[in-house]
Amino acid sequence: MTILKPISATVRIAALALVGTGFFAPLSAQAHDGHNHGAPKTSAHSGQDHSGHSAQQDHSGHQDHSAHHGHAAADHRMPGHLGMDEGNSERAMRPDGFQYKRGSHAYSAPAITLRNQNGQKVAFDELLAFDGPVLLNFIFTSCSTICPVQSATFGQTQEDLAAIDPDYLMVSISIDPEYDTPTRLREYAELHAAKDNWVMLTGGFDDIFQVVRAFDAVYKGENKMYHRPLTFLRANGDAPWLRIEGLLGSEELAGEYARLVRPEVN
Fold it and tell me: CA 137 to CA 92: how far, in whole Å?
């Protein structure tokens, strides 16, 4: 079913900026990191990490984090996208072409242990057993395209969400866990004025991949940085997940949240 929904000016401006960077080029040709994925691979390409730095350097000029942990570049490539159930989704759009896809899905949290931005161990399945509203997304701190928009939306919407129902949990999971240490996540949390109920998680690559796969967030591409703007919302522990694909502004996110947790008035 196709429906029309307003998109806030903030996210329209951010999306236009991404168009200027080439982010919305055909997916078969370009990832959000700006690499050309349609061109033949060369030996030089294997010496580049996801941000375009030499494989000997990470974002801060130190040894590359994937090499430090002994992973070959191929170890970080995701398998083909598992695909969203087109029969269980609808598209919300405006005449100007900005749109996002909505669908209801059942996802199960894997029983793994991750670490939060304070370095504390977190049992992921127990965390998501929280019997209240949950908002979840996948980010990485060095991302310069969709992640800043998604994280800014989470940060800017915290007060609006609390006004609707304050007993909620936000979860952001790094898909670059080897670079995103708890310290970096803590700095990222401070950057976005994260409140105590916004948990940021990192961990081993294999564990993070289990979560990515569990939420059908895998994307076919050169590596794990080739990801999509996905946001997941759930009203309570027994409710299905609302999967949203596309960039949201704070108005859209608050509206989706309100419809989930206060359906009787929305």
Answer: 19
Instruction: Tell how many helices (H) and how many strands (E) occur in the chain.
Output: 7, 10
Q: Give the pair of three-digit tokens for residue 119.
A: 């370095």
Contact (Cβ atoms closer than 8 angstroms) between residue 129 and residue 227: no
DSSP state of 240: P
Cβ-proximal residues to 143 (8 Å cutoff; 6+ apart), any chain:
32, 176, 225
Please give the model's pTM, rounded to 2 decimal places. 0.68
Compute the distance between CA of residue 218 and CA of residue 82 in angstroms, rounded to an integer: 7
The encoded tokens of residue 166 equal 């304050």
Across the range 72-78, mean pLDDT stands at 35
Of 23, 13, 53, 40, residue with least CA distance to 226: 23
DSSP letter (8 states) at residue 30: B
Q: How far apart are CA 173 and CA 90, in angstroms?
A: 25
Is pLDDT of 18 > 80?
A: no
**pLDDT 10s digits, 25-61:** 333 333 333 333 333 333 333 333 433 333 334 433 3
Q: How far apart are CA 188 and CA 243, in angstroms?
A: 24
All domains of the chain, ordered by start, with CATH? 2-265 (3.40.30.10)
Helix, strand, or coil (residue 171): strand
For 184-237, the pLDDT digits (tens) are 999 999 999 999 999 999 999 999 999 999 999 986 665 656 778 999 999 999
